[in-house]
Task: inverse folding
């Protein structure tokens, strides 16, 4: 089951633009220059082995090197230390190589594994020898160490990095916001969460008007609700204040949907449309008009992501309770199909 951390990571860094800018910020300059970043595209990251067991790497991208070779970027997200990550990455690389060669390209692809880690404790410094070789005579262990099936990786450890360090040059503003949320939001109390949103208002404003801004803002709101104790109403007010301070003359998609949801639902006092469907605590005492507004908003969100809804699903939205609409909104954050969104 996806965690709030997984949802945040995939929503932001599943976008090649944000992922590429982040990866460029942590790689050595010669390698950055050797890659044609305009060719970077997302790949299907699920695979099955001979026993039909499904494996899944968080994110997988394919990019062309300037010499014509292809490079796979395996990007793993970890919210805590994961012993054995090298073997996990090795398994992924083997399956990806098999699949790539089966597609008809005779040249084996190159790989680069990257692990993004955040949390309370730093990623431990690697030990000289794998645990499996401990107890052997030193010379024998040293000989075997470099010949074991393991994959080295680039580690981006956010632990200990300040907000200023995570607002690094070269990254997109949404990418900066994702790193800040992942590392710092879980440490905030309610007051600290509201203060942080104020400090990050330029990043939130940039997300609001960018591609996929509505879903990304929903993901940020959901993340704060899951990892902090900030009240939903206070969060709504703080996020809305960030959107209002943005001076772009074009009304964002999120704001349009919020206003349409209010009109159709004939509701008053809902300050942030993207909050509809995310907070279970907002349902008590709201009128039937609010449910209608949420249903209308979800209809538009689902249509924007999956195309026109079948009549039967529109009818299901129209008769759903506020609690049912909340659940549908939460499932929408991670779902890849309408079946997953409307799963009971």
Result:
């Amino acid at each position: 089951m996806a965690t709030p951390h997984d949802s945040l990571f995939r929503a932001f860094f599943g976008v090649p633009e944000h992922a590429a800018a982040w990866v460029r910020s942590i790689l050595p300059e010669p390698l950055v220059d050797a890659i044609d970043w305009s060719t970077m595209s997302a790949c299907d990251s699920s695979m099955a082995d001979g026993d039909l067991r499904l494996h899944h790497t968080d994110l997988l991208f394919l990019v062309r090197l300037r010499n014509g070779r292809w490079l796979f970027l395996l990007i793993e997200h970890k919210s805590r230390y994961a012993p054995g990550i090298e073997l996990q990455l090795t398994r992924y690389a083997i399956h990806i190589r098999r699949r790539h060669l089966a597609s008809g390209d005779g040249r084996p692809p190159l790989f680069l594994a990257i692990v993004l880690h955040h949390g309370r404790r730093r990623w431990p410094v690697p030990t000289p020898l794998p645990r499996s070789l401990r107890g052997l005579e030193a010379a024998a262990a040293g000989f075997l160490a470099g010949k074991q099936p393991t994959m080295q990786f680039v580690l981006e450890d956010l632990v200990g990095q300040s907000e200023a360090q995570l607002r690094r040059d070269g990254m997109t503003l949404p990418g900066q916001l994702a790193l800040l949320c992942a590392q710092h939001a879980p440490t905030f109390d309610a007051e600290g969460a509201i203060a942080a949103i104020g400090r990050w208002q330029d990043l939130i404003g940039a997300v609001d008007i960018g591609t996929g801004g509505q879903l990304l803002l929903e993901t940020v709101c959901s993340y704060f609700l899951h990892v902090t104790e900030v009240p939903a109403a206070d969060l709504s007010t703080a996020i809305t204040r960030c959107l209002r301070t943005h001076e772009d003359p074009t009304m964002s998609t999120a704001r349009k949907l919020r206003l349409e949801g209010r009109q159709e639902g004939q509701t008053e006092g809902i300050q942030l449309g993207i909050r509809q469907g995310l907070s279970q605590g907002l349902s008590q005492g709201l009128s039937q008009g609010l449910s209608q507004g949420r249903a209308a908003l979800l209809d538009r969100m689902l249509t924007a992501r999956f195309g026109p809804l079948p009549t039967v699903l529109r009818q299901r939205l129209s008769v759903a309770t506020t609690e049912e609409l909340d659940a549908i909104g939460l499932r929408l954050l991670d779902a890849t199909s309408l079946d997953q969104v409307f799963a009971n």
Remarks:
- Residues 163 and 184 are 8 Å apart (CA to CA).
